[in-house]
Queue: 3 jobs
Job 1
Amino acid sequence: MSQEKIDAYKKEKAGRKERIEKQKKRKKIAKIVSSLVIIAIVAAIVGSVIYNKFGKSDETAAAADASATEISVELADDTAAEASTAE
């Protein structure tokens, strides 16, 4: 082996432990972060389902349905009026 190859090998060997430790830390951090993200997504989905099932009272749901019906009737009236004026 040439002297350059020997020097390069010694440099690589000298920093090997630190490099391996850094890789292990990065893998551990990546696992932790990905686990937290997955847990947050699952919690958001479960929370949404629970809120939609139990969070709204019957009165609130009825009021929301009534206001949605009023809005759709108003929009239909406006659309019909615009259509008749356009002709």
Job 2
Amino acid sequence: MQFLSKTNVRNKRVIVRCDFNVPMEYGNITDDSRIVKSLETIKYLIENNCKIILLSHLGRIKTEEDRKDNSLRIVAKRLNELLDHKVTFLSECYGSKVKEYADSMEPKDVVLLENTRIMDLQDKLESNNDDELAKFWASLADMFIMDAFGSAHRAHASTAGIAKYIPACVGFLVEKELKGLNPLLNVKERPFVVFMGGAKVEDKLPIIKKLIVKCDYILVGGGIANSFLKAMGEDVKNSLATSDEELLQELRDLLKQYKQKILLPIDFNYVNNAIMDVGEDTIKMYKHYISYSKLLFINGTPGKFEDDETSKGTRKLFEICKNSDSKVILGGGDTVSAAKKFGYENDFMFQSSGGGATLEYIANGKLEALEWIK
């Protein structure tokens, strides 16, 4: 795989796929971490006198109303502030106006095109990796830089297809992600302990099956734990849990096969008759296993960390990890958001910027879009 750190980009016009899929609330960015993580690559390109065209998606676009609600204009404004460098925003990402602007760019110019997923409004051209769309974006530049790790598990026109037509490499963010997650692919530190939380067990079961073979113990929390408990015949009341009998049987089979490895919560914080967080005895159990681990991977949270009354378990989990001697890797998404909320964002060995991409890379050792980068 070609890396930006070993590629000559001096004076080139480059098209960069970033991950600006930031969380939004009432039209405001609530966490700009993904924008911040893109800065190293963009600044490097400015320093190398490049003409820089940025692509990203934001949310899902199925209707014209979605297009309005998921415009990248607000990202361009925030990027301008963080870079302290002018960032032009174009309200389109395809067509003659985009081509004309790209052709008129001067060295060090930075432009962010509109959300790539507006191209999904007709025949899902972006998501289906449409060849003509990829060819158009490639025509705007001399080189393609893939730096959107959080979108690398999908081969879309903007994440993969462009690489078919112009030289391509991965940016600094992607390079750091691959190196940072490598200890989970080739486990050398023992004991290796995993904490797996989150809401839907169906989303996490494939990675659980991969990790259970590699790890020494897997501590389970959140809605995932509720499903395991339900599979065991426990009454989880109104708690979030799967009702899919086939899935519940898979969980029973896992518990039977790995009963010494899988550790479930033993007490809970209920709200409206639903499990919303783990209790103090469970936290003590987590601490026991974390305290002597050498490598620890955390994905998801044990409770609804956004609310004060159900965040104690998550806060305590991060505190225990911070004070341990383990090499701690956070698995992106809500995990990193929670660490940031509680002030632990700088206390761990590595924090992934991906969500599904992180899990897929750990499970399979590769990502679909990166397979296009030769």
Job 3
Amino acid sequence: MKGLDTNILVRYFVQDDPEQGEKVSQFLEKTVTEGENCFINNIVLCELVWVLESAYGYSKAEITDLLEKILKTSLFNFENKDAVWWSLREYKKSKADFSDCLISRQNKTYGCGETVSFDKGVKGVEGFVVL
């Protein structure tokens, strides 16, 4: 299995640098041919969403569509795929950032009864309490 950094995913999906985009495409094709998978950890997913929003102006709908496609692609493995799916659903229906949704789910996975925040955007996200 090969681990992927955020910049690899950005180049592949955004294709803003044709040379790097082509390198990533070739790498992924080779990885598939060799029967391997690529690992995307939670930090990389959060960074990807942040970069797409802040640097490229992607809308929430565009980001959720992209995340769904990534999650459905057999080439990619995840740190906790169930948590990512849950976080994606919460992200779609709330004002919270994707990373906040994932924080809530990961904290619950590790036994936290609640996650406390000052961020009003997490109000209504299961597991969060706003002080």
